[in-house]
Amino acid sequence: MATKTLPDLKSITAILGTVQDILINKVLKQLLEAPLISSIFIVDFAILLFLRPPFLFSLVMLGTLVGLAMYFGQKLALFK
Known about the structure:
Number of strands: 0
Radius of gyration: 19 Å
Number of helices: 3
Order of helices and strands: HHH
């Protein structure tokens, strides 16, 4: 009966590093392909985070932020 050995730490970190690089490159590529939508997403997030707009306006902006996040999620499809 053969015994199974566990992979060493260097191989695990190498695999995780390459997966992380692939995901980051895919996200950055998608953000650069749609600069207008990306800038709207970033500005919307920054305004909601730092400026605290009025309640009704913030609800509209939060809805826009969720919609843009869903759009990017569909376009990226990271976990097919």
